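Weekend entry, working from home. Most of the wet-lab plans are on hold until the incubator is repaired, so I used the time to fold the two sequences that have been sitting in the queue since the last round of cloning. Logging both here for the record. First:
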Amino acid sequence: MWNQNYQSNSSSGLSTKSLLIAIAASVALASGCDPKLIKKGGGGAASGGGGGTGGSSSNASAAASISDLNDEFDASSSISNWEERSVAEGGVTGTDGSSLISGGYLLLKPNANNYFYQGNRGLNFFKRINLSRYSRFIVEASVRAHERGSMVNPPPVGTEFHSAGLIIYTDLTDFQDWVVVNLGRQDVATGLGFESKNTVNNVSNLWLYSSSGENVGFVRLCVVDGNITTLTKLPADPAWTQRDTFTHAGMVGNNVGVGLMTNDYLTAVADMDGAFDYIRFREISDATECDRLSL
């Protein structure tokens, strides 16, 4: 039986991570914080935190179109157009791992035990977007989560939450509020699958979905005013699947950070990489275009 912070479409057993979630929930309750933030089945929403200006500049502020933020990772120099999260939070480059653009892919190589969950934030490169100018948009990435040293093999069996995908920070003042959608090896019960995760004030809630043995696919985030929807798609899928919608009303009109991330959860040796073929952005008119438009 899954606890309130951890829901899976698989049918067996609790993982180490779910036990940690239960502990975190107990701590939150003891401190007077409500950790539930439960998403109602069939399209309900989980409440999100407030936004922040997060800095004086925006990557998109000078762009003629939000699509100018696209990156096909064909030129190694394009990494200079991205901010490294650890540096943005006052740290130094390379704290969470390394990056490399090669062969048309961005490779994110996280250090061991480097991941996004609760107050932990891992390897990530992002761009700032001012929502006062671009309040409705979709961002899509082509992603492959694989064993380190192999562009084919998925993250090793026996590991958990080794994945790569998209992230949006809804408050850049402290990076404690964010939404993630990723693909990779999830918990033992799910195996290879997608993760949709909402974090508010460093309290994370996540949902898992099988990818039918695939470690290659596509992920999307759809931002419509204060709502963020996670979407997933496998190479053979004819259409996108909407997973979850989370409300972060406080982000409206402020700067957000959108980019690429990896998880290498609770390991002594770094053993996975995330490979990204592209990341693309597009403005939309309303939520009906979240899964209809191509990028």
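Second, folded right after the first finished:
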Amino acid sequence: MPSIESINQNNATGYHNFCFLYYTLSLMGDGVVVEEEFKSIQSCILKWDSDKGDEWAKKIADETHVWWKSTPVRERAKICISLCKNLNNWQTLEARKQMLSDMIAIAKSDGVFDETEKLFIKEVATKIGLENFPIN
């Protein structure tokens, strides 16, 4: 397996950025990423570039998890806000919709889709110009 690289906001790829939002969401409800959520995150990352394979998706997820855990809580919120603002500049409308669909799938993957997760997704949707996106 490829080695884990040190990722931060300055050298993160678009895949890492999506994954950062996915981890933030996953930890909203109960504070931990359970195996189902981790697998769902990897699956969503793989959908963005399926030619790269499972090991690549796991590497992106692992690198982002290390980045996420090493980031102070208040800084995580700032990063998420920044990522959302920038999504409108570097992602298409369809890609933003796919990201929200991914977030809903990840939130549901542990069998619980709680209000905190729904509120986070609604906030992201609003920040990326999709305030009417169905969240259910």
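Plan for Monday: verify the second prediction. The chain has a mean pLDDT of 89.
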